[in-house]
Fold:
Amino acid sequence: MYAGQIIEKAKVSDLTHNPKHPYTMACWRHLGSRCRERPDLQKKYPRVSPQPGQPARAAALPPRCSHAIAGLCEVKEPPEFIIEPDHVAACWLYQ
Ligand code: SF4
Structure:
């Protein structure tokens, strides 16, 4: 979830090992860098700096994403796109 919205749905194993939404990936990078019990996640998602900028309002999610598509992300909220069976992400990268 991001700002109260479900942004990615998948099996737990896919969310853990094959996340697709940029925010899910950022969450794993953040958690992986703090989780001593999961060196596999630390290696896969090395520590990164927090996203710059202010936390987004639910109605204005795109500004903090480094993958944002100009003229699209800041204008229109993405629907859920089917990436593969049982894996969807609300992100314009998968349109
Ligand atoms: S829809 Fe755009 S701003 Fe939102 S996560 Fe995807 S690329 Fe980033």
Observations:
- Strands lie at 8-9, 81-84, 87-89.
